[in-house]
Specification:
By secondary structure, this protein is of the alpha+beta class. Helices cover 17% and strands 23% of the residues.
């Protein structure tokens, strides 16, 4: 377990014990904070869209082209947008802070 900080769509920040070795999406989906993860992590629906705090962006793996393309189609896309299904929650990411993006 490692700390995962999640800001829900109402702006409320939650500190939760995230399970390392799982995708960030898998941790968020269990919390009922608005991440539907309809495609189950296949990078095809963007229902796990989050904004990553700028201090954490450089610590994340590079974005693959399919994630970049899908995010680019979203109305609420930002520079710090990521699909949480593409982010493995490792011990090195303990303390990661993400904000759940608005529903598309």
């Amino acid at each position: 377990m490692a700390l995962l900080r999640v800001v829900d769509r109402d702006g409320v920040e939650h500190e939760v014990d995230g399970k390392t070795g799982l995708k960030v999406m898998e941790n968020l989906r269990e919390l009922d904070y608005g991440v539907a993860a309809i495609c189950g992590g296949m990078c095809s629906c963007a229902t796990c869209h989050v904004y990553v705090d700028p201090e954490w962006q450089a610590k994340l793996p590079a974005m693959m082209s399919d994630e970049r393309e899908l995010l680019g189609e979203l109305a609420h896309h930002r520079e710090n947008s990521r699909l949480s299904c593409q982010l493995e929650f490792t011990p090195a990411l303990a303390g990661l802070r993400v904000t759940v993006a608005p529903d598309e």
